[in-house]
């Protein structure tokens, strides 16, 4: 179990992932695997966000969870490390961010481990499969497209890949990981194609940063205190 550096913890914190105990945890990722909990979860997210619609409330959670998934890939590319905790070890609690209530994520830093080169593809497949399970569960709570939820994740991944590909010390590894993300093989357990390549059309992430990439609306415009995404496709 590698010890996280100050820079690693700071990077996690910038994506609302914290390494201390939450004062008042609301639920864990494990709760979302249980169908009987999903109605309570939907109502909870409506209360936390004051969203105009259920889809907006669930999409907001999808964006928070998307930050966690994206950081899994960031840590893998940057440090050859992955968070390997159990679903019950990822806890969610209310935090105040830029004047609005949202969810922070809390983990044990001792759950990170090193990833060997020969297991890299398997680890990436595992991250994506676990995300697909949560997306399937979220879709049971209300009518929301899986495209919305996947694009909530991909937006953060796109930015990370842009910065990593621009870093001379990490660009080779970032390119290798990007190639794996664009290969349909690591998506095989729930898709017959690379959903990430479908999102980017195979274009280098750095060419997409200032361009509209999303094909779906994330509904942030329906959350009080938030604005429409700058690249909203329905504007």
Quick summary:
The protein contains 7 helices and 6 strands. The protein is an alpha+beta fold. Helix 3 runs antiparallel to helix 4 and helix 3 packs parallel to helix 5.
Report on the structure:
The protein is an alpha+beta fold. The chain has one domain (6-222). It is built from seven helices and six strands. It has a four-stranded mixed beta sheet with strand order 1-5-4-2. Strands 3-6 form a two-stranded antiparallel sheet. Helix 2 packs across helix 3 and helix 3 runs parallel beside helix 5 (146-165). It starts with 5 loop residues before the first helix and ends in a 35-residue tail after the last helix. The model has no long low-confidence stretch (mean pLDDT 95).
Q: Provide the spatial order of strands within the biggest beta sheet.
A: 1-5-4-2
Strands, total number: 6
Mean pLDDT: 95
Query: Which structural class matches the secondary elements?
Result: alpha+beta
Proportion of beta-strand residues: 5-15%
Shape: globular
Helix content: 40-55%
**Unreliable stretches covering 5 or more consecutive residues:** none
SSE string, helices as H and strands as E: HEEHHEEEEHHHH
Total domain units: 1
The end-to-end span amounts to: 46 Å
Helical run tally: 7
Main β-sheet description: 4 strands, mixed
């Amino acid at each position: 179990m590698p010890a996280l550096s100050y820079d690693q913890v700071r990077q996690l914190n910038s994506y609302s992932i914290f390494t201390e105990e939450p004062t008042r945890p609301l639920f864990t990722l494990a709760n979302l695997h249980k169908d009987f909990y999903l109605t309570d979860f939907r109502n909870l997210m409506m209360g936390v966000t004051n969203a105009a619609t259920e889809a907006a409330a669930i999409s907001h959670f999808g964006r928070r969870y998307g930050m966690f998934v994206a950081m899994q890939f960031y840590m893998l590319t940057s440090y050859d490390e992955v968070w390997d905790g159990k679903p019950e070890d990822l806890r969610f609690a209310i935090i105040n961010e830029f004047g609005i209530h949202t969810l922070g994520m809390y983990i044990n830093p001792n759950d990170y481990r090193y990833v060997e080169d020969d297991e890299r593809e398997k680890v990436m497949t595992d991250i994506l499969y676990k995300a697909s399970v949560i997306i399937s569960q979220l879709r049971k709570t209300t009518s929301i497209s899986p495209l919305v939820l996947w694009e909530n994740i991909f937006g953060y991944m796109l930015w990370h890949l842009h910065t990593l590909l621009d870093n001379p010390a990490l660009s080779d590894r970032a390119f290798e990981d990007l190639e794996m993300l664009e290969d349909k093989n690591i998506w095989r357990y729930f898709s017959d194609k690379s959903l990430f390549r479908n999102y980017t059309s195979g274009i280098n992430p750095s060419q997409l940063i200032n361009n509209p990439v999303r094909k779906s609306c994330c509904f942030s415009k329906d959350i009080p205190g938030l604005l429409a995404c700058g690249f909203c496709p329905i504007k």
